[in-house]
Amino acid sequence: MSVPEPQTGYEWESIPTPLPAEAVEPEPAVDWAEGLAEQEIWRVAPSRHPAGGTLEPLSAEWFRHLEGKRYRRHGRWVPSLLELSRHTKQNILAIGDGLGTDWVRLAQPETHVSVVEPNSDRLRLYRKHFATREAAIQLHHAPWEHLPLSDDRTDVAVLFFHQAPTGDFPALSREVFRILRPGGKVMVVVPGKFNATRWQGIALPWRWWQSKKSTDSRFTSAGLRELFAGFEQVSVRKRHLRRSELPYLWRWLPLPVLERLMGRFLILKAFKPLQSAPPTVRLAA
């Protein structure tokens, strides 16, 4: 008995096109992440010791280790002054240039945190960080000058820049004003011009040009107020100072006092006016 030949199909039939393989997103560059980690833990000068110690870079333990260093000693002011645990059940916009450690703290249960980032490499780094920490955060790949958020829908905006931000910062301040609810709060951290380095240049004339060159791109309190002039109840503080940044003759003075005079960062807090708010609007506390 002969075996029937398999049916070859009709001439008009074609072999189905296989589905494309799912693209695998590349891992963030470890060397770049290590550089950001140095910034995240407030190192001023390079060190031969890795910021994360012997832990595997980009692992959950590595990120937790850096978090512990960030909020210890010199960084104790960050969680309290930026109110990282006070805005639960609110819509928060987060923008910055670090590893996203503060944004993980903001991502409390029932809190909606949106991170807007124009750099795709940093966006991948954020995604890796938030995934390892199991933080529920919405990522947006978009320029800061055109935030992909609706008008009057955000309760709090937090902007933290360790280095002087590049790009159109006035446009970013206008966009923050647009997306905030009436009564919503903005908190901004930027490097200050009149820090310890600049004051050393003023007190020690032979170091003037060196200090001027290193602080020219930074912000003054008056300039920061002007950028957010459309807001109300504007306050600006100075924070963050190490004794090692001071001349020897100044190191005996109380550090909390000096920090408020020549701290490295300016912290602005302000509110969007309530002019267009309905009677039942709730202020961002």
Poorly predicted runs of 5 or more residues: none
Name the beta content range: 15-25%
* Helical proportion, percent range: 25-40%
CATH C-level of one domain: Alpha Beta
> What is the helix tally?
10
Report the mean per-residue pLDDT as an integer.
84
Strand numbers in spatial order across the main sheet: 3-2-1-4-5-7-6
Task: Briefly characterize the structure.
This protein is an alpha/beta fold.
Structure explained in plain terms:
The chain has 285 residues and is α/β, with parallel strands linked by helices. The chain has a domain at 55-192 and 220-240 and 253-271: 3-Layer(aba) Sandwich (Rossmann fold), CATH 3.40.50.150. It has helices at residues 30-40, 60-70, 77-81, 101-106, 120-132, 169-179, 196-203, 208-215, 221-227, 255-262; strands at 91-96, 112-117, 137-141, 154-160, 180-191, 232-239, 265-271. A seven-stranded mixed β-sheet has the order 3-2-1-4-5-7-6, with helices on both faces. α7 packs antiparallel against α8 (208-215). The N and C termini lie far apart (88 Å).
Secondary-structure map:
Layout: H1 30-40, H2 60-70, H3 77-81, E1 91-96, H4 101-106, E2 112-117, H5 120-132, E3 137-141, E4 154-160, H6 169-179, E5 180-191, H7 196-203, H8 208-215, H9 221-227, E6 232-239, H10 255-262, E7 265-271
Parallel strand pairs: 1-2, 1-4, 2-3, 4-5
Antiparallel strand pairs: 5-7, 6-7
Q: Which descriptors would you attach to this protein?
A:
alpha/beta, globular, 10 helices, 285 residues, single chain, 31% helix, seven-stranded mixed β-sheet
